[in-house]
Amino acid sequence: MKNTKLIQTLKTFTKDELKLFEKFVASPYFNNGRNCLPFLKELEKHYPYFEDLKDKLTPEAIYKKLYPGKIFNKQVMWNQVSQLEKLALEFLLQTAFKNNKTGRFSMIFNELSKRNLDKVILKEIDNADKYISTVKLGEEYYSLKWIVEINRSDYWNSVQGRQDKSFEGTVKSTELLILKFLADLSVQVWDLNILK
Which of 75, 71, 148 minimizes the C-alpha distance to 109? Predict the structure, then answer.
């Protein structure tokens, strides 16, 4: 079992991430009816190296702990491993999403816009502006500014019917898109020079 994708993924988790992952696995929102928590707790006993000392990390040994007195069922263990692998990948995705402010703002603006939650969009634009003031000039800065200007422009056009303000926002967002492109291009040119 120690060479499975699941174990290789769990090896990369810090102690704090493993604790968060345990909460994640316990959450019914992500867990589709299968209770993988006991399985995870058995695996955690072998953290961080997941070495198979005295055959304690074999599917049979873990099955025996999870289902005392029952005959080993390979399919049940395979299902547990498969489900926990999926949850581990989803956890990594959620962690990455949480840390990616640009993606978060983009997606929240998109969702709010679909639901016509215009007042909430304005509040999120303010939140994004506050966050942007803490970011250094670069790809993230221009990406966020661009996303904010597009949404500000949409707000003025669709909600307020102010095409003049919408036009200003469109011009600003176009300028920011060009600046974002130039920032990205400069990084790529720098990388090319380094690799040369």
Answer: 148
C-alpha to C-alpha distance for 140 and 176, rounded to whole angstroms: 11
Count, in order, helices (H) and strands (E) of the chain: 9, 0
User: Hey, how many other C-beta atoms are within 10 angstroms of the C-beta on 70?
Assistant: 10
Q: What is the token pair recorded at 6?
A: 């699941």
Q: How far apart, in whole angstroms, are the C-alpha atoms of residue 51 and residue 125?
A: 49
Query: What percentage of residues in the chain have a pLDDT greater than 90?
Result: 44
Collapsed DSSP state (helix, strand, coil) of residue 48: coil
- Average pLDDT over the chain reads 88
| 176 Cβ contact partners less than 8 Å away, ≥ 6 residues apart | 142, 145, 146, 149
Contacts of 25 (CB under 8 A, 6+ apart): 31, 36, 37, 40, 84, 87, 91
If asked whether residues 107 and 182 sit together in one domain, one would say yes
The model's pTM is 0.76
pLDDT at 161: 66
What domain count does the chain have? 2
Provide the residue range defining the domain that includes 135: 100-195
Residue that terminates a domain, selected from 70, 98, 126: 98
